[in-house]
Amino acid sequence: MRRNTLMEWNSKDSWKVFLLLSIIFVVFSGLFNHTVWTPDEPRVVAIIKDMYLSGNLIIPHFAGIPFVEKPPLFFIYCVSLMHLTGLDALLAARLGLGVLCLASLAITFRLAWLLKGKEYAWLTLGVLASSEGFLLNFHWLRVDAMMMFTSIAAIWAFAEAYLRFQLRYVLLAGALTGLAFLSKGPIAIILCIGPAWLVLFIRYVYLRQRGAHQNVTWGRVLFFHMMGFIIMCLVIAAWVYPFYKQASPALWHAWFWDNQIGRLTGSSTKTLGHNHEGKPFYYVSSIIEYTLPWSIFFIIGLASSMKRAVTRHQVNWLDGFFLFWFCFAVFILSYSATKRPMYLAPLMPLFALMIASALMTLKGRWFDWYRRAFLVMMIVIIAVFAMTPLWAKYLPSDNVPQALMLWLSSWQVTALWVLFAIILMIKVEVTQWPAWIKLSLISSLFFIAIFHHVFIAVDIAKDMRHDLNTFVKQIPQDKRGRTAGIGFSETMSSIFYLYDDWSVPMVDKARAQRILEGKDRQYDYLILDRTGSIQGPIRYMGLPSSTPYRLLLIGHPRSDKKRSAILWLTGDENKTLPMVEVSEKAVKQPAKAN
């Protein structure tokens, strides 16, 4: 008989073993085969390296620059892994991502089991482990990985306390909530833990009114919650108090007001970036992307829940839980002036729970056609990437870095991963496993192929080590102490520190002019980070056109950004320094050209 639902369970089904194996492979695929990538990764690894060397766990720094946008829990976690494993900052951090990813999956599995049982838990696990947004954010070095884990872990602990009537878990929930705060600030509590806790607590009160857990007095319930709150405050204070004592008023203002309040209201976005104020539907496309390949089920489930709520049809408490949490979180994210797709990362477990809930109610053969369409699309995509030598010659070579073009034009051994993945994807499709597990495994194989093969091409485009080392080696050691930087992005400061152990000191525009005019006592040279421009250095810095300068060296560590460059300058009056050979014709312009 033809199956007419997406769910068919058998405790002896072998798909569970293959699902767990696919999870392990997809989590660790592509984690260790590339260098740091922009954005964010250079700064994150530089902070971890600095924290490891300095032992300063309170105020994170990169290249001598304090970084207080976020509390340091993720950095401390990675430094601990460095001490435990002996790995360097980059490898320890990537290992930390994998551990946090597996822990988040395990916690979400347990939470789903508490909410709706074993079948629902397996379904949620399969959805989450094959969702694009979940895998992307656990393959990119950012503190959001720690925020995702601590947030869902705190919600799980509250679920244990309220649904299984184990109030001691409130104490654990308090500690995890404090850790969530230390991962990215109060946004973790506002976005995830707060709304989830409210609904779970209301459910607990309802169950008590129905006669459950009557042997425990409200006084004892209050005691556990007070203790949980105290534990949360102590965990938060373990960092906030020493930071308050050590930080200058400017640093405290930057952390609390600029990054916690200013990002929400828009008052600090001019300096911190990512300003998308007045775009209430900014996250619509990102939600669809992050929930791929399950987006259609997310939309169906969300629309069905909203329809039942609006028409006042019976909505079970679980649908209400998901709907309230989703609407509240998306409202906060959309209201905030600062918006980035990655801010959806801590909501990925919620999205998986909603998708799994929708899948359990759907029937019909249409899902087979949907899955097969995705199968064909995925095979075509990875096959196209595996056969780059056949079409790379048609790319505009002027816009593609030379090293990347060489890679694209050559047959790569890693393309065998693509071939192997395609064979397994077809094999999975013809099995007699449940329809949803087929889509989960096919998607995992697709991502494994991407991570093993395509990530190498991305790394070639984003790798900054070789060109930066070439640039720095041409600057004499005795001149580096007399060199300052201007206009450095966080990425540029980080890679100088990561790859050459050089914390280039920054100066403002006024001092840069004094340096070029030979009037500064400390510095004779400047390194300018010229981003996205081909303007002359004087015009780019906004200095008077009469400012003298000599362009001594030019480099392009950001090979994927043709218009960007780093320039080593000195004043025109410095006649004793020999000109360093450089590769751009632009250096032959007159000294005062703009």
Automatic annotation (TrEMBL):
Coarsely, its chief localization is: membrane
Signal sequence bounds: none
Q: Name the UniProt key words of this record, in alphabetical order.
A: Cell membrane, Glycosyltransferase, Membrane, Transferase, Transmembrane, Transmembrane helix
State the Gene Ontology terms under molecular function. 4-amino-4-deoxy-L-arabinose transferase activity
- List GO BP terms, alphabetically: lipopolysaccharide biosynthetic process
Q: What is its EC number?
A: 2.4.2.43
Residue ranges annotated as transmembrane are 57-79, 91-114, 120-138, 145-165, 185-206, 218-241, 281-303, 315-337, 343-362, 374-392, 404-424, 436-458
- What membrane topology is annotated for this entry? Multi-pass membrane protein
Any single GO CC term annotated in Swiss-Prot or TrEMBL for this entry? plasma membrane
Places the protein is found? Cell membrane
Q: What is this protein called?
A: Undecaprenyl phosphate-alpha-4-amino-4-deoxy-L-arabinose arabinosyl transferase
